[in-house]
Amino acid sequence: MKRSAEFFLFPALILMIGLLVLYGLKSRGGALRSAPPNWPKWVQIDPPKLLYDARLTNLKGTEIFLHETFDQWALLNFWRTDCAPCKREMPLLEKLHQGYSARGLKVIGINKGESAEQVEQFLRENPVSFPIYLDLEEHLSKIFDIYVVPSSFLVRPDKYIIASVFGIQKWMDDDFRAYVNYLLRNTEQQKATTQQEYERFR
Prior knowledge:
Layout: H1 2-27, E1 43-50, E2 55-57, E3 63-65, E4 73-79, H2 84-100, E5 105-112, H3 116-125, E6 132-135, H4 139-143, E7 151-155, E8 160-166, H5 174-185, H6 187-190, H7 195-199
Parallel strand pairs: 4-5, 5-6
Antiparallel strand pairs: 1-8, 2-3, 4-7, 7-8
């Protein structure tokens, strides 16, 4: 009888210790964290993909490396001037950039295959404050498999792409803002790689 009691007592003790550890982690804000608010339009990229040294051109004709243009969360938006949904989405992206760029989310527009003159004419009629770069040869668009515009990608501060979404979006709706707010609160936990690790891919 005594052996039987010990048989049941030992697993119960292990379970109790496990529950106490679990509670301690949660109460201290440790490794176990709540899942982010749901934004079902995202297509999660699992595992995340490293943004390689993509070369683009700014509106002045200077070549830039995309990864060097941000050190925070970034929303990459691929678009064209002859795309009506892209035009309708621009004011929404501008509001997102205005509301979150200082808090840690930068909007970056990437024009797919059009000239600087075409893009500048469009921006005179549809001005935005976020940076616009040109994928003149559509090299990056091919890497990202961009066949539909607008297309958007969410990139962590460590330059890993974690999600994508296609088509025009309501970037300032409550669900998306809740998602962004969650990411910004937990930025330090998202920085999984170092600059040295990134340099290996150059």
